[in-house]
């Protein structure tokens, strides 16, 4: 049955459509956009804190690094890279909320992994080269598809239909043997209705960290039909990543680039080398069909279908510890003479093979300044998890590819929402948003250990949102909003305990000033959580961050972003985020005694985040940008342990772009230079913190031991790019 569905979806492709409805004078005008994003995107008059980014904003810096790194200079954003240079596994946090709380949609289709709720950009390398625009909503934001936003939502729209034929070839080279090639093309509109476009990319990098190599390939293909009232797009895009593991971090900063992954020790306990296949190998393919239809002067509708197929593994050499035991591998100990062999060095592969089906429907109504948006999502995720034994030093009679655990996760979701925008008078506009989510998540089988792992859960969430926007003048407005969000635990939360769902009440108060030569957007927020699944700082045995329910907590903050245009050639774009992030009445068991700590700081939540971009354009073809980011001190724990403190840091990048018009027989030739961390600062953007109780050193007493690990980032490094447009 799955194969039939796959063939059907591959042929019929997928979903998402969108209408952007605007008021021009007294006429209602429907604009059929490339994909259904207007239903879930915030409008300029909505009482929602958001920032819009178009492809031109990131074009000169788009030289192979992941989308989180390209968004590093937005308000309240903190990014990190396991390999240290922005290629491979990267992450983003917004307002202190980790990536699993940042809802990401691609053309309105959820991108977050259904089980882990994380976003793995390494599966879509060079995806920024196929992006038309991005909207980052901070806080709960408007209702969207997929898991609820608990810190932010990131809505990404892929390439628009191109009217003209074009082709371009981009290459970039840089530090750590980084090399990228990207080919893009479009037929332009054929017979005024049809377009075919695409992209092929390949990226290689050794990474800043030892052996943190990346071998990345990706593609993007799009076919479109467009007329006055209809827009249909079929897309296929995906990637294949092979990365040497670099998610272990280091505990000793005397060698910042050391990578412990794949260590091999001899019989005397001496390090003899590293396993050369300690790698992550994963493919992910997305197929989408988007259909937008203007029905009449007031109504439009859209339908979307999506199928995502992911499969791959990570391979490990296990030299010591629990993963070398026969019981972990599900094997019977060997009896050889008078000796019982119950452990062995081994190589394992842990697999994930998953299918994700999505259908979205939306309808939009706009008349007499009243706007209604209706949306719904139906999705199902099926994930097969299993481990295979590749090699063992002492195994006995074990068949090749022996499976030592297997389980299946099955997640179904139904999501409905309606949004209403209604003017109360000439200056006040009201906004109401109701969302209902029904989520069923079941898991059956064994996890590595092997241990039985069964989950049977059902969640019904009603998430209301409401707000007012007051138009002070043509260029100023105030807004206030209240939003509620609830979300289910992730797979790893179930593996590490018996979690409760999270609840968030978000209050936003903002003031926007938008004039010809400058804008200033400011807002104050209060995010009040109940049973927040906060990061503890610790990692489980496969490197996934461990979270736990922490009762009541909140985030109170002020955000300001601005742009000042000075004499037309010089612009300044600063932003600042100041916050207080607090666990209320926190308890922790230290030295065997449950201790009341009072109010403590939330983990991974710096109180000060500052960004700035200084841009100078002496001519239309030459641009200089100087970008600065400052991240304040942050704890990696919720217990205010000084050992868990990540020190503040500041980095600066230089970006230079020059375009040759109609040169050497080509349409354009563009040179881009990006110098990262130009002042060669040594800094750490991420790490982990753990505790354990020592009750054997001094029998009869318990002592809590603390430990830390870090992910150092690269010093001065560069990427030089050349793009030729035909």
Give the SSE layout.
Layout: H1 2-12, E1 19-24, E2 27-32, E3 50-54, H2 55-58, H3 67-70, E4 77-81, E5 90-94, E6 102-106, E7 109-110, E8 131-138, E9 152-158, E10 166-174, E11 178-186, E12 194-205, E13 214-226, E14 230-244, E15 263-265, E16 271-274, E17 279-294, E18 299-318, E19 334-336, E20 339-341, E21 346-367, E22 370-392, E23 402-423, E24 428-447, E25 451-452, E26 455-473, E27 476-487, H4 491-495, E28 502-514, E29 518-530, E30 533-539, E31 545-549, E32 552-566, E33 570-590, E34 593-601, E35 608-619, E36 622-631, E37 634-635, E38 645-646, E39 649-661, E40 668-676, E41 684-694, E42 703-712, E43 717-725
Structural features, described:
Helices cover 3% and strands 60% of the residues. The relative contact order is 0.12. The model is unreliable at 1-30 (pLDDT under 50). It has a single domain, classed as Maltoporin, Chain A (Beta Barrel), CATH 2.40.170. The chain is built from 4 helices and 43 strands. The protein has a 22-stranded antiparallel barrel. With 726 residues, it is mainly beta. Strand 4 (77-81) and strand 5 (90-94) form a beta hairpin.
């Amino acid at each position: 049955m799955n194969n039939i569905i796959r063939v059907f979806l591959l042929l019929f492709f997928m979903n998402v459509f969108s209408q952007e409805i605007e008021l021009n004078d007294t006429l209602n005008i429907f604009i059929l956009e490339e994909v259904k994003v207007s239903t879930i995107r915030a409008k300029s008059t909505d009482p929602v804190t958001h920032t819009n980014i178009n492809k031109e904003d990131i074009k000169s810096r788009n030289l192979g690094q992941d989308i989180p790194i390209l968004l590093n200079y937005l308000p309240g954003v903190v990014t990190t890279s396991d390999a240290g240079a922005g290629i491979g596994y990267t992450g983003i946090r917004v307002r202190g909320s980790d990536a699993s709380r940042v809802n990401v949609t691609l053309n309105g289709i959820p991108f977050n992994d259904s089980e882990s709720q994380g976003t793995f950009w390494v599966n879509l390398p060079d995806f920024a080269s196929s992006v038309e625009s991005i909207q980052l909503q901070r806080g709960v934001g408007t209702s969207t598809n997929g898991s609820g936003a608990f810190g932010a939502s990131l809505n990404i729209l892929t390439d628009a239909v191109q009217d003209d034929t074009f082709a371009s070839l981009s290459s970039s080279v840089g530090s750590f043997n980084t090399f990228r090639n990207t080919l893009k093309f479009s037929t332009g509109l054929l017979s005024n209705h049809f377009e075919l476009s695409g992209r092929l990319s390949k990226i290689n990098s050794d990474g800043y960290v030892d052996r943190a190599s990346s071998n990345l390939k990706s593609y993007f293909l799009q076919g479109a039909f467009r007329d006055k009232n209809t827009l249909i797009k079929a897309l296929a895009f995906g990637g294949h990543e092979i990365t040497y593991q670099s998610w272990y971090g280091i505990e000793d900063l005397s060698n910042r680039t050391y990578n412990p992954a794949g260590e091999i020790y001899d019989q005397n306990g001496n390090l003899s080398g590293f396993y050369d296949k300690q790698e992550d190998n994963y493919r992910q393919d997305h197929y989408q069909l988007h259909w937008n239809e203007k029905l009449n002067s007031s109504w439009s509708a859209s339908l979307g279908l999506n199928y995502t197929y992911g499969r791959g593994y990570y391979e490990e050499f296990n030299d010591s510890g629990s993963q070398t035991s026969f019981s972990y591998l599900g094997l019977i100990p060997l009896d050889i003479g008078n000796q019982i062999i119950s452990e062995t060095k081994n190589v394992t592969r842990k697999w994930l093979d998953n299918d994700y089906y999505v259908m979205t429907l939306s309808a939009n109504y706009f008349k007499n300044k009243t706007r209604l948006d209706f949306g719904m999502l139906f999705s199902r995720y099926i994930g097969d998890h299993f481990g295979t034994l590749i090699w063992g030093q002492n195994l006995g009679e074990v068949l090749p590819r022996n499976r030592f655990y297997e389980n299946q996760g099955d997640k179904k979701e139904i999501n409905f929402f309606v949004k209403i925008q209604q003017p109360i008078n000439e200056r006040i506009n009201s906004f109401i948003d109701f969302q209902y989510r029904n989520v069923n998540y079941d898991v059956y089988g064994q996890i590595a250990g092997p241990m039985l792992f069964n989950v049977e859960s059902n969640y019904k969430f009603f998430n209301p949102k409401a707000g007012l926007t007051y138009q002070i003048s043509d260029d100023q407005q105030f807004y206030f909003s209240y939003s509620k969000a609830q979300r289910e635990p992730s797979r790893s939360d179930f593996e590490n305990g018996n979690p409760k769902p999270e609840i968030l009440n978000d209050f936003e108060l903002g003031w926007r000033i938008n004039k010809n030569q400058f804008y200033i957007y400011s807002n104050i927020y209060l995010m009040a959580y109940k049973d927040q699944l906060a990061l503890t700082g610790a990692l489980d045995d496969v490197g996934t961050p461990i979270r736990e329910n922490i009762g009541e907590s909140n985030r109170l903050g002020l955000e300001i972003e601005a742009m000042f245009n000075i004499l037309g050639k010089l612009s300044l774009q600063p932003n600042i985020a100041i916050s207080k992030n607090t666990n209320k009445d926190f308890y922790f068991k230290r030295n065997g005694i449950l201790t009341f700590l009072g109010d403590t700081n939330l983990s991974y939540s710096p109180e000060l985040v500052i960004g700035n971009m200084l841009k100078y354009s002496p001519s239309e073809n030459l641009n200089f940008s100087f970008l600065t980011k400052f991240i304040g001190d942050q704890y990696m724990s919720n217990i205010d342990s000084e050992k868990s403190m990540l020190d503040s840091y500041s980095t600066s990048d230089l970006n230079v772009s020059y375009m040759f018009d109609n040169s050497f027989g080509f349409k354009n030739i563009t040179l881009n230079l990006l110098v990262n961390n130009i002042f060669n600062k040594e800094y750490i953007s991420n790490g982990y913190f753990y505790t354990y109780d020592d009750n054997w050193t001094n029998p009869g007493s318990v002592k809590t031991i603390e430990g830390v690990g870090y992910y150092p980032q690269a010093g001065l490094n560069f990427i030089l790019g050349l793009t030729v447009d035909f």
